């Protein structure tokens, strides 16, 4: 289901990304069935879920200096679910822009609660689907880092609600895509670690994409010094469970040496 903006228009494609309404039950059930199929068919010890959020191409839309991203999705099915959950709408609101404006002016906190519940309810179902199929398998989840307090209201990802439902929380700390310095990583990671502790797996950006027309805009070129400084933000920390590198292929083209050095220093 194509997400709908506050204006009543379809959310436009940004680079490769459109997103979809997270209240689309058909898509939810397809994903749950896929989780069960993978766990039943392959010798996996766990599964990570990604894009379990409300639509937002956060890497681009949360860059400094951009206007507030438009909220979504205000499609008719989602608005009906919100009304069912909250009994919110006055009878004279008969257009999507009018309903969206009324929510922002009168029921914004309830709207955010609704969004967070949609996400956490699905993640709970994903956990059950995995554990019922393979009891010892672990569930991980990629989450959007907080940027200026915008992330939770826009994505519906509330770390306090999600951490008890998953075995691993992986904040995507793509500093270079967000046009932030490496020093942004540690303070952005801190509130996640405070909740999830050693079940936190920070995802660090190791390189930029120098052909944005092929994949996407991953920010300006990253130097080796930038990568080493990024690693220093998590080096030696006893309060995380490890780390993930994005893109992993960067480790094959020379940046793996810095990671090996960091890991060796920690032993």
Written description of the protein model:
With 267 residues, the chain is an alpha/beta fold. The chain contains ten helices and five strands. A five-stranded parallel sheet has the order 1-2-3-4-5. Helix 4 packs across helix 5. The mean pLDDT is 94.
Helix amount, in percent? 40-55%
SSE ordering: HEHHHHEHHEHEHEH
Give the helix tally: 10
Instruction: Report Rg.
Output: 20 Å
Which shape, going by the Cα principal axes? globular
User: Structural class of the secondary structure composition?
Assistant: alpha/beta
Mean model confidence by pLDDT: 94
Q: What's the story with the biggest beta sheet?
A: 5 strands, parallel
Beta fraction:
5-15%
Distance between the termini: 49 Å
| Low-pLDDT stretches | none
DSSP strand tally? 5
Which strand order does the major sheet show?
1-2-3-4-5
Entry keywords:
267 residues; 5 strands; 10 helices; alpha/beta; globular; five-stranded parallel sheet
Helices and strands in order:
Layout (H helix, E strand, L loop, with lengths): L24 H17 L4 E4 L8 H4 L14 H11 L9 H11 L1 H26 L4 E6 L7 H5 L3 H4 L5 E6 L11 H12 L6 E3 L18 H9 L11 E3 L9 H10 L2
Parallel strand pairs: 1-2, 2-3, 3-4, 4-5
Helix pairs in contact: 1-5, 4-5
Short structural description:
The chain contains ten helices and five strands, in the order H-E-H-H-H-H-E-H-H-E-H-E-H-E-H. The protein is of the alpha/beta class.
């Amino acid at each position: 289901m194509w997400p709908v903006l506050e204006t009543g228009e379809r959310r436009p494609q940004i680079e490769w990304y459109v997103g979809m309404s997270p209240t689309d039950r058909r898509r939810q059930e397809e994903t749950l069935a896929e989780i069960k199929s993978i766990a039943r068919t392959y010798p996996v010890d766990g599964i990570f879920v990604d894009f379990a959020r409300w639509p937002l191409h956060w890497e681009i839309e949360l860059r400094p200096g951009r206007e507030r991203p438009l909220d979504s999705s205000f499609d008719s099915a989602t608005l009906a679910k919100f009304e069912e959950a909250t009994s919110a709408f006055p009878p004279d609101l008969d257009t999507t822009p009018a309903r969206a404006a009324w929510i922002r002016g009168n029921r914004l906190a309830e709207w955010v609660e609704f969004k967070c519940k949609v996400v956490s309810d699905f993640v709970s179902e994903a956990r059950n689907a995995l554990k019922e199929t393979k009891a010892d398998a672990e569930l991980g989840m990629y989450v959007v880092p907080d940027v200026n307090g915008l992330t939770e209201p826009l994505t519906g990802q509330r770390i306090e609600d999600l951490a008890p439902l998953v075995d691993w929380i992986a904040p995507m700390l793509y500093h270079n895509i967000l046009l932030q310095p490496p020093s942004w990583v540690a303070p952005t990671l801190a509130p996640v670690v405070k909740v999830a502790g050693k079940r936190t797996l920070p995802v660090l950006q190791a390189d930029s994409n120098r052909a944005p027309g092929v994949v996407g805009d991953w920010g300006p070129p990253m130097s080796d010094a930038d990568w080493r400084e990024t690693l220093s933000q998590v080096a030696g920390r006893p309060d995380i469970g490890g780390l993930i590198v994005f893109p992993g292929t960067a480790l094959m083209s020379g940046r793996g040496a810095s990671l090996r050095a960091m890991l060796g220093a920690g032993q």
